[in-house]
């Protein structure tokens, strides 16, 4: 559906093979810190700065242009919750979706059929949906809102039915990596044929003083390797 992107991707691969130096491929924008959930690991509050000038669509276009000159072929948007951004369409279109892979990281609770259709029309290719556990109660407790698991899963299934590519992201910590929730989450992605990205924890935001509690030890890292080796979806 994006023929011009195909040629840009092919060119990026050739350049990396010829010059043995991979280009800048990926740029991630945090476009807003507003969110409809109260996640345990949220970093948004610590980054909010009242009165600070926000990027306009023209700013995104300028950054995208410079990044594309350096080889970028993938632009990603996250928050907070990016689906709360009232000018999301203009921001996405500013980075020239016909020439780039566009991905949006979302908690999935706002993925209505209408919003999914809009995202597709704007040129979004991939949704990375945050899902922290395959056990509903555990996910809801981590996200701070009852019923968020059901809303997220409904959004995932609706996006898949609409033909959008969906990947799942989950933060693993010392306290959850060996639990039933992560194992249930692996079963969840395997049944749906989705890729699961297990994300290492960062002591920032609400986790700023929890380094010892969340950091993975050698046993945890060995278990992480076991997950990736035993499943083609992790």
Order of helices and strands: HEHHEHEHEHHEHEHH
Alpha carbon gap, first and last residue: 27 Å
The major pleated sheet works out as: 6 strands, parallel
| Low-confidence region ranges | none
**Structural class designation:** alpha/beta
* Percentage of β-strand residues: 5-15%
What does this structure look like?
- The protein has a six-stranded parallel beta sheet with strand order 1-2-3-4-5-6, covered by helices on one side.
- The chain is built from ten helices and six strands; from the N terminus they run αβααβαβαβααβαβαα.
- The two termini are 27 Å apart.
- The protein has helices at residues 3-19, 44-47, 57-69, 88-94, 113-122, 136-143, 148-161, 180-192, 211-214, 218-230, and strands at 26-30, 74-78, 101-106, 126-130, 165-171, 195-199.
- α3 packs parallel to α4.
- It is globular and about 45 Å long.
- The protein has 234 residues and is α/β, with parallel strands linked by helices.
Brief synopsis:
The protein starts with a helix and ends with a helix.
